[in-house]
Amino acid sequence: MPLDYFYGQVGELFSFYRIPKALFLESRFQNLSTDAKTLYGILLDRMSLSAKNGWLDEQGRAFIIFTIEDVKRALCCADNKATKLLRELEEFGLIERKRRGLGRPSLVYVKNFSAESSKSIFQNRDFHDSGGFKSASQDPAKSRCNKTEENSTEKSETYPFYSEEDDGMSKHEQLEEYFSQSLELDILLRLCPDDEDTIYQIVDLLVDTCATNRKMLRIAGDDKPAEVVRSRFMKLNADHIRFVLKCLAENSSPIRNMKQYLLASLYNAPTTMQLSYQNQTNHDLANRR
Known about the structure:
Radius of gyration: 21 Å
Strand content: 5-15%
Low-confidence stretches: 116-158, 162-166
Strand order of the largest sheet: 1-2
Organism: Faecalibacterium prausnitzii L2-6
Protein name: Replication initiator protein A (RepA) N-terminus
Order of helices and strands: HHHHEEHHHHHHEEHHH
Pfam family, one: DUF6017
InterPro entries: DUF6017, RepA_N
Oligomer: single chain
Largest sheet: 2 strands, antiparallel
């Protein structure tokens, strides 16, 4: 059916999602995907409901409820795409998600994109007031770079975990909350239901390793500084875990020490996953010739 033209000011009668021009014009957002920019506009639109419904936390900050299912419906995409877009907005500091546990949906804080408030995105790394935390990295360049050596950046990074209980949460509980969020645990379990036991084993291993007081840790037969291992583990995301599960499923050799196998796989996952996908791409291109 052919569509009609707009006449006069009739176009103003419709409602629209508004995407800030800054997301297209400012250099700091140049690597943000168009789909993520669109999702940010949708989240901004949903913020109007927060004002109407009085959805404010104890510090007066507005939040919304926008689940993975909401993203899928809004953008007509699958779980993987929806998860990736939310993670992308987090990496650019445009949203924060606060997990509440017990099957309740996360609170989504849509951040102010304006230049005046952008400094706070990078200066304040603590996640709200509950002892929870943001995603592993706010800087997409750092989270996506290919690291083959333990560089000075890895060694110098620190994370706000405490050996003593903070706000009623122990160090282990804080780490469990952190990895539950950074690994998108609820989505991961839904996408890989047959690997539930292994996924929980991986989370327990990550928590125990990052909580250790040891100075050195043995990874793939080598002793590595615990801070370097902790830094790498806290940059892992759901894609890395799925890659490790895939490697585990494809492994035909007997695994004598599952803990050491998983430690090595998790430590090397960012590098080996990238190399694996690159090799597959090269193979596909070669077969097309």
